[in-house]
Amino acid sequence: MQESSVIQHFLQKGIEQGIEQGIEQGKEQGIEQGKEQGIEQGIRESLIEGILENLEVRFHTQNLQEVKSVLENIQALPRLRQLRRRSLEASSLEVFMQTLIG
Q1: 18, 50, 80, 84: which has the fewest Cβ within 10 Å?
Q2: To which H or E segment does residue 70 belong?
Q3: Which residues of 41-74 are buried (b: 16+ CB within 10 A; e: fewer)?
Q4: Helices 77-89 and 93-101: crossing angle, nearest 10°?
């Protein structure tokens, strides 16, 4: 009977250590994932601000709320990078809007 309780004790210790290690690993992964998401969100916001600033300066307009709303719904960074470039190349705000919506 005593041998059984020793085995139970070590089994319990192993389970507790496994749980602790799992929790610690989960915390580390969560922190890393949070950092990555924060960086991506910062890049998105910077791209959107850059696009709006380019349009304001190039086309002397500040009424860009509709453009901003559309941009804020775009999650793909490559698409936002493409639009940033188009904001520099477009011959008019209307041409940019066609690129944005089309």
Answers
A1: 18
A2: helix 65-72
A3: eeebeebbebbbebbeebbeeeebeebeeebeee
A4: 160
Q: Which helix (H) or strand (E) holds 5?
A: helix 2-59
Please state the pTM of the whole predicted model.
0.75
Residue type at position 33: Q
Q: How far apart are CA 48 and CA 42, in angstroms?
A: 10
Angle between helices 2-59 and 77-89 (to 10 degrees): 10
Tell me: the pLDDT tens digits for 14-52?
888 888 888 888 888 888 888 889 999 999 999 999 999
Q: Which amino acid is at 80?
A: L
